[in-house]
């Protein structure tokens, strides 16, 4: 469910956009689809559907085909310790989690793959959380691909692109104070520490890009 007001002017007010939206709305109503999901994702936040390519990596939106990778990543020690145990015990759990992410217009996951081996190495997220005023950028990588600069390369690519979107002039990030690697990466990316916050009785460091 969309938890905040839609941007007032995501695009210029042209007759063409209004016409397209009306056609989509009629189609969705006739077929029982939830029109707001389509408009929020494809028209109001187009940057969240982009694909990216860097020198060593490709970033594509999460799909059901990535359920095995989700199972592996969410069961790593780092994810459970610093992000939280999502209780992904079976492939069915991983598929349900993936489907839940795909069905939420406030969440965008990019699966990061090595261009050389075409293997999934990590994840970049962009989420509008209830307790934050802006979307936040996140990252998580398999431990076997740590210390290769992949996290910075992928996150920097997405951050630079999204920050040029008028819908995302401010981008946030959070991490636990004891997640030293995450803190160092956020600082390297250009995030600035703004304050400490509490969420579900967990202390988090809140970062902003650019500095508010």
Question: What are the defining features of this structure?
Answer:
8 strands, 2 domains, 7 helices, Aminopeptidase, 3-stranded antiparallel beta sheet, single chain, 212 residues, alpha+beta, 5-stranded antiparallel beta sheet, 24% strand
Account of the protein in words:
This protein is α+β, with helices and mostly antiparallel strands and 212 residues long. It folds into 2 domains: 12-44, no CATH class; 45-209, Aminopeptidase (3-Layer(aba) Sandwich). The protein has 7 helices and 8 strands; from the N terminus they run H-H-E-E-H-H-H-E-E-E-H-E-H-E-E. It has helices at residues 15-31, 35-44, 67-74, 77-82, 91-102, 150-162, 180-189; strands spanning 52-53, 57-61, 107-114, 120-127, 136-141, 171-175, 192-199, 202-209. A 5-stranded antiparallel beta sheet has the order 1-2-3-4-5, with helices on one face. Strands 6-8-7 form a 3-stranded antiparallel beta sheet, with helices on one face. Helix 3 crosses helix 5. The model is unreliable at 1-22, 24-29 and 31-44 (pLDDT under 50).
Mean pLDDT: 84
Strand order of the largest sheet: 1-2-3-4-5
Shape: globular
Structural class: alpha+beta
Q: Compute the gyration radius: what is it?
A: 18 Å
Helix % is 25-40%
Write a brief structural summary.
The protein is of the alpha+beta class.
């Amino acid at each position: 469910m969309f938890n905040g007001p839609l941007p007032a002017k995501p695009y210029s007010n042209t007759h063409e956009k209004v016409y397209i939206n009306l056609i989509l709305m009629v189609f969705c109503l006739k077929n029982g689809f939830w029109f707001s999901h389509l408009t929020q994702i494809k028209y109001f936040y187009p940057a969240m559907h982009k694909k990216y390519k860097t020198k060593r990596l490709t970033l594509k939106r999460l799909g059901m085909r990535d359920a095995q990778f989700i199972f592996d990543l969410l069961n790593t020690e780092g994810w459970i310790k610093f992000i939280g145990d999502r209780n992904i015990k079976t492939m069915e759990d991983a598929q349900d989690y993936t489907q839940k992410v795909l069905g939420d217009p406030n969440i965008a996951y990019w699966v990061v793959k090595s261009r050389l081996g075409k293997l999934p190495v990590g994840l970049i997220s962009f989420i509008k959380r209830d307790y934050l005023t802006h979307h936040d950028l996140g990252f998580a990588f398999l431990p076997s691909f740590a210390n290769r600069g992949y996290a910075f390369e992928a996150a920097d690519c997405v951050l630079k692109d999204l920050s040029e979107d008028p819908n995302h002039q401010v981008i946030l990030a959070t991490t636990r104070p004891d997640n030293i690697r995450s803190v160092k990466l956020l600082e390297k990316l250009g995030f600035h520490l703004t304050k400490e916050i509490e969420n579900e009785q967990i202390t988090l460091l809140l970062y902003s890009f650019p500095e508010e």
